[in-house]
Design brief:
Layout lengths: L2 E3 L2 E7 L7 E7 H30 L6 H14 L1 H4 L2 E8 L2 E8 L1 H10 L2 E6 L6 H25 L9 H13 L1
Helix pairs in contact: 1-2
Length: 176
């Protein structure tokens, strides 16, 4: 795969439907490391939460499966990026609540393989993948600069649909 700069590999892929669109497959080592850290953090949070819940059940502080299930639901909701990697079972046995869980390795393997990869779509089919990547990076930098300056310029979204209202809105913003 050709290099797109800054540790990014890029590859041009034609559209499977045969349209004029092209796809650029990108693999970034920096993004892979970032996504691995995020993934690990969510998995760790879920496992630590499950261990806390298990301990509270073992200590006898929680005696109803429904309470544990709700707590687990909130835990998984807060850590959605890794929630699908867990099979969790809550049972009431002899007046005590038992929690068991397993990590689905096949989903975890797919998550690991896809970390750092993403797909861009373009209607420009006659450029080299490295040029498309460079244009994409320039676009993201321009968007970031606009976001930073938007506050200083006190710009707000324009939701008007009639031209005279848009012009009035822009004129008012410039005067202020």
């Amino acid at each position: 795969m050709p290099q797109g700069g800054n540790g990014v590999e890029v590859k041009l892929c034609p559209s499977p439907e045969g349209t004029t669109e092209v796809f650029i497959l990108c693999r970034s080592t920096d993004r892979q490391k970032k996504e691995e850290a995020i993934h690990d953090r969510f998995v760790t949070r879920i496992e630590e939460g499950l261990k806390r819940f298990q301990k509270s059940c073992t200590d006898g502080r929680v005696k109803k499966a429904s309470i544990v299930e709700r707590r687990i639901g909130r835990l998984l909701e807060r850590n959605q990026r890794a929630a699908s990697l867990f099979d969790i079972e809550v049972k009431e046995v002899d007046g005590a609540v038992k929690i068991t869980w397993t990590v689905k390795n096949n989903l975890s393997d797919w998550a690991r393989i896809s970390e750092g990869c993403y797909l861009l779509r373009s209607n420009v089919s006659d450029w080299e993948p490295e040029d498309l990547w460079t244009a994409y990076i320039q676009l993201t930098k321009a968007e970031e600069a606009f976001r930073l300056n938007k506050h200083d310029l006190e710009l707000r979204p324009v939701w008007h649909q009639l031209e005279h209202r848009v012009n009035a809105h822009i004129s008012r913003s410039i005067i202020l």
